[in-house]
Amino acid sequence: MMNLTLKVWRQKNHKDKGGFVDYKVSGISTDMSFLEMLDVLNEELSAKGEDPVHFDHDCREGICGACSLYINGHPHGPQQTTTCQLHMRSFADGDVITIEPWRAKGFPVLKDLMTDRSAFDRIIQAGGYVSVNTGGVPDANEIPVPKIIADEAFDSATCISCGACVAACKNASAMLFVSAKISQLALLPQGQVERKSRAENMVAQMDAEGFGACTNIGACSAECPKGIKLSNIARMNREYFSAVLSSDNV
Amino acid sequence: MILDSKIPEGPLAEKWNKHKFNVKLVNPANKRKYEVIVVGTGLAGASAAASLAELGYNVKAFCFQDSPRRAHSIAAQGGINAAKNYQNDGDSVYRLFYDTVKGGDYRAREANVYRLAEVSVNIIDQCVAQGVPFAREYGGLLANRSFGGAQVSRTFYARGQTGQQLLLGAYSALSRQVANGKVKLYPRTEMMDLVTVEGKARGIITRNLITGTIESHSAHAVLLCTGGYGNVFFLSTNAMGSNVTAAWRAHKKGALFANPCFTQIHPTCIPVSGDHQSKLTLMSESLRNDGRVWVPRTVEIAEKVRKKQIKIADIKEEDRDYFLERKYPSFGNLVPRDVASRNAKYVCDEGRGVNETGEAVFLDFRDAIKRDSEDAIRSRYGNLFDMYQQITGDNPYKEPMMIYPAVHYTMGGLWVDYNLMTNVPGLYALGEANFSDHGANRLGASALMQGLADGYFVIPYTLGDYLAGMSKETVTADHDEFKKAAKEITDKIQKFLSIKGTKTIDHFHKRLGKIMWEYCGMARNAEGLTKAKGLIKELKAEFWRDVKVLGTPDELNMSLEKAHRVADFIELGELMVDDALNRDESCGGHFREEYQTPEGEALRDDDNFAYVAAWKYTGEGLESELVKEELKFENVKLTQRSYK
């Protein structure tokens, strides 16, 4: 059982300035997940009639991408996992743990540790799809895909849209997220028809949302809980430049 | 009240095609004059919203998550069934239909299940066209695996993340329609009530979870794609936010709730580690292909294991009880979910559980590693083993995993007819939110199939039939019924905030969960259920007297959000217990201890219980009224399931 000090970012709403508040929690078991440790804090706060700490979370099995805590200077904490899969055995009795929201212009804080990540949805809406309607598509096996390509596309497609890449980047760049989707569809035969317009439109939306540029530091990939590779960004740059040179956007 | 399932006439295999021809159509130029509300953006909701928008309807899509892509369909691991017969191993639409009806222990509608099997093949085509990266063979064609004890390989998969990839496919189609202006998205918005005008569903009341604003939205039809209610047990494999509120409030507005006691307990989950536990994590049941389930032969040895006085590796072969292999020699560790779960409970009830809480059994890969090498096992289950180690801190390559059953899926839901319409005209329920296709037990890899079948290939046909018959005029959101419903919600919120009790919402949720798990879980009996009924009634009274809901109505307030959800779970819990008490038989996931075969298997009573139990809400504090829909089996012969 551990006793910990938490320095938690509290901010009433988007307009509030916000600041750190210290809390003590005790009796924390090493089997708890990080979010369960925060549940303990919130139950204590609620019992005292104080506003619980708001944070995004849902599936708690590392796949929905909702959880998004910046812990001791790292998105999702010291391990390359989502926050919900981080367990208290990664900490020691007496530790002081600093918990902040994602900090980026593109992700405004809504309350406490919750941010608005709808910018990512708008980037997908700009072109992160294959334009096929329901019905009237060919038999699945009429579109063969070499296994090695399918596997590579799958690796890119496992992005969970949590935004850790943005939070990790000193420029708050969203290029790892955007490039993962562009790569997945650029690799697959289904994505070829709209390949150029997709790259142009998604990059344009990414810029419009206020995300920064990439300076090839690689923090995004190093901190990504799903291990999305930096080579996706290289592929996106190739896709983007060749699209601009021979644009379909006429 | 008589329920009309509207199953089309004619031979089973021709029903859906004939029906598609017979339904009324909405002229393409008129589709834009209709508005459709879709609540929930998981597989069913996202696929329905996208498909309807493509047809030209104006769609409003709502979800409580911050993005439609986070709906809990994302967490499905194993795969999706389809009767493609790509493997040339004897699969067919009829076989998938037959397996599903049998697997559901003959408590599903034949016609619905046949249609599900029929459109399953289209789903795979659709997903591949969207760029879903399914697993492939070296020749570039799609790979399949056998799943959940099926005797054919009909499961398509994307590593252990099939739900994620399918949902991202549907989300991409939805996003495209948002860009086209045909879908308006309302994330972080929770449905608070259904609004009916002259008996028809005409809209919903919502709460904006950021600002707290109560809003009215009108439409010509409302589709609830809001998933299951497993969180009534507090601990389940569902996401923390998964809730029954939308479906429950529709139920209180007249929609019948069918077979609420049919819940699926999944055998391979990571056991509870303590009172702090917030949710349970599923380990894909594909693990049972190679893992052997066992507990120590005697209570004494189990006691030593629990106290860590003996090394697991030192337990002799003759002291290990591979209870599934012993009791079910032909299916062994691959028996269906309900059978595997129940037997794990039995051995733990005997005192042979293996973790500190006494509620865990071993899932052991020692023999598989010896046979096939550690690398072979890693290539099959690497990500699952990593996940296990991440959560428990134990290395499953060295020590056996510990698993225990957990609530995973709910077969019950809103009653719908063949068109997926509830008994409230204009109100539809799709995916896990309805009751229709899985009977009393769902087969592995069939949930994803049903969600997408409903959304992509059923509702686009059946909704038009309803809309074509109604006026294009919109009831506007300033109609009196909307004002009335909105006021009721505002009053309810005030009521929550005015209680100012002493106990937190989670306190009540946990207590409810314990009652449900103890008395309405893996095994039930009349005595326990009757006791549970009383306990829930007391809990409900205490909740409304002593709950502490914090904050104000007009802010981001997760305390208030939870209060709504838990209040509804308590009421649902009462109905589940009623339903379980009413059904004096055992079938699938509903195991009444009084009704079992001499071998301890579920004993159905087809003469008296081959019906859907649909419950009608009759008012606050009153008993619900049972409405029966008789199930007719014209194609499948009812047999006792046997996995010996």
Structural commentary:
The model of chain A has no long low-confidence stretch (mean pLDDT about 95). With about 250 residues, chain A is α+β, with helices and mostly antiparallel strands. Chain A has helices at about 35-45, 120-125, 145-155, 165-170, 175-185, 195-210, 220-225, 230-245; strands spanning about 1-10, 20-30, 70, 75, 95-100, 110, 115. Chain A has two domains: about 1-110, Ubiquitin-like (UB roll) (Roll), CATH 3.10.20; about 120-245, Alpha-helical ferredoxin (Fumarate Reductase Iron-sulfur Protein, Chain B, domain 2). In chain A, the strands form two sheets. Chain A has a five-stranded mixed sheet. By secondary structure, chain B is an alpha+beta fold. Among the domains of chain B are: about 10-75 and about 110-120 and about 160-265 and about 410-470, 3-Layer(bba) Sandwich (FAD/NAD(P)-binding domain); about 265-410, Succinate dehydrogenase/fumarate reductase flavoprotein, catalytic domain (Flavocytochrome C3, Chain A, domain 1), CATH 3.90.700. Chain B has helices spanning about 15-20, 30, 45-55, 95-105, 110-130, 160-180, 245-250, 300-305, 325, 335-350, 365-370, 375-390, 445-470, 480-500, 505-520, 525-545, 560-580, 605-610; strands at about 35-40, 60, 80, 155, 185, 190-195, 200-210, 215-220, 220-225, 255-260, 265-270, 290-295, 320, 360-365, 400-410, 415, 425-430, 610-615, 625-630. In chain B, strands 5-2-1-9-17 form a five-stranded parallel sheet. A five-stranded antiparallel sheet of chain B has the order 11-15-14-12-13. In chain B, helix 3 (about 45-55) packs parallel to helix 13. The chains are: A alpha+beta (about 250), B alpha+beta (about 650). At the A-B interface, helix 1, helix 2 and helix 3 of A face helix 3, helix 5, helix 6, helix 12 and helix 13 of B. Chain B: Belongs to the FAD-dependent oxidoreductase 2 family. FRD/SDH subfamily. Chain B: GO terms for molecular function: electron transfer activity; flavin adenine dinucleotide binding; succinate dehydrogenase (quinone) activity.
